[in-house]
Design goal:
Blueprint (H helix, E strand, L loop, with lengths): L15 H4 L3 E2 L1 E6 L5 E6 L2 E5 L4 E6 L11 H9 L1 E6 L5 H7 L9 H5 L3 E3 L6 E3 L4 E12 L6 E12 L4 E2 L2 E2 L7 E3 L5 E3 L12
Length: 201
């Protein structure tokens, strides 16, 4: 099968998200100038550079009360900071609850029963028991083609790692089983890993 996205795919559901998979989930926490906390998951998310460490996430929809975007991007525009919380398998239900189209005055931490704690370097809350959290300073927001598509880039200025996820000096993802987004309504969980040496090593 071949299709041009501009002409449609002819399938019951869009296959694009099922092709580009699995995708890590950035559970983005922000705080508006009014002090309102927000927590929302984004599967268009990844690390993009080592030195300095940088990440990105993209928001691809809008809310009627946020002037052409969603709460996360609107808050970052106001404050210039955000935190990426890593999602473990055990937090799947809470993460899913925070994905709802809640009004801006709804506190998703409270709505989903997610414990929070203050970030150290930025004015925002983070998920208290997340396996890891990356405190970020926004470097740019890029407007992408299409309606309400924004890519947020940020420099990681603070890193939290849960102590039980460290094993022999390494961050062991099998200790918490990270959740990944697949296509449609599907998710995956990383339960085992393997290593490959690069040529010449």
């Amino acid at each position: 099968m071949f299709y041009e996205p501009r002409n449609g795919h002819g399938l019951p559901h869009n296959p694009f998200n099922a092709i580009v998979t699995p995708r890590p989930i950035g559970w983005i926490s922000t705080r508006g100038r009014d002090g309102q906390d927000n927590l929302a998951p984004y599967s268009f998310f990844n690390a993009v550079a080592y030195v300095p460490p940088q990440v990105m996430f993209a928001s691809t929809s809008t809310k009627p009360d946020r002037d052409g975007t969603k709460d996360s991007v609107a808050n970052i525009r106001e404050t210039g900071v955000f935190c990426v919380n890593i999602v473990e398998h055990a937090a799947r239900d809470g993460m899913n609850t925070t994905s709802g189209p809640w009004p801006r005055e709804v506190d998703e931490f409270q709505q989903a029963g997610i414990p929070r704690t203050p970030c150290r370097m930025i004015d925002a809350a983070r998920v208290a028991n997340a396996p890891a959290a990356l405190e970020c300073r926004m470097t740019q927001i890029v407007t992408l083609a299409g309606e309400a598509n924004f890519m947020v880039l940020g420099e990681v200025i603070g890193v939290h790692m849960r102590d039980d996820c460290l094993q022999d000096g390494m961050f062991d993802i099998t200790r918490f089983k990270p959740l990944a987004r697949c296509g449609y309504r599907d998710y995956a969980v990383v339960e085992q890993v393997f290593s490959l040496k690069r040529p010449g090593e």
